[in-house]
Amino acid sequence: MRLAHYATSLLAACAIISPLLAAPANAQQSTPAHAHLRHAADEFRGTPDGAGLLPTANAEAEIAHQHATLAGRDPLSLEGMQRHMPHVIHAIDPTKVEDGPGLGYGVLAAANGAARHTELAAASEGASDAIEAHAVHVATAARSAMSYADKAVELAENIQNAESAEVAAEMLAELTKLTDAILNGVDADGNGRIGWQEGEGGLSQAVTHMGLIKRAEGIGGESCEDPPQHPLGCVLPYSCSHRTHASGWPKPRLCPYSERHNRRATRYGSCDTSRSRSLVAILGAT
Hints:
Structural class: mainly alpha
Number of strands: 0
Largest sheet: none
Helix content: 55-70%
Order of helices and strands: HHHHHHHHHH
Number of helices: 10
Radius of gyration: 23 Å
């Protein structure tokens, strides 16, 4: 009888203690910092399909770059180039052009939201050192992408008002590089690497450092390895960007200058950074 009573008491104690032991682990999965990270990286109410803000910014930037590239198919046709400019603007800032092939959220709103929620994560009570350190990198790269996006909208509007194909084509070449910079950043200091710093980083660098946060927190991301080389010898300027991250994040490109650059490099047998260096001059002149 005494043994049965002891067993019953032991079971009751286990029922009380077990949830208490599990509580810290559960709490770690639902901290305020992690909630903000989810908004930036995985899911956010108000975005198309409830996707995270960074993936939404990346998807809109892809559309803007696609239409800037399509506009350049016939640089002798002023009408053809101007036809795609509303599409570029819509993908970046749908408050300026309401209808278009974009998602209707815009690069600017999505990148700004990603930066803001990442900073809120770092400011949250109990934020880890990894969150505090890499949040600066994510936010800075996202806001650099916004700076390129602002300049891209201005150029697209100027192309709409151009009176000759020659003038429009010259501005379109700059616009295409800017939309590429939104996605991939730019080698502003010419050292062969694209970092997260202001004036260099783009959405790809923001995604990379968000992945480092998630890996450190144990809430996603994959382990980093030495970055692979482009088949023609172009070494990636940042680590871990070639990985497919958790939660369905877009997989960054092999070459930091875009898939189109990869195809050109394969065709012409070169993979230099002249596009990125020339973009630095454009940004400095605008």
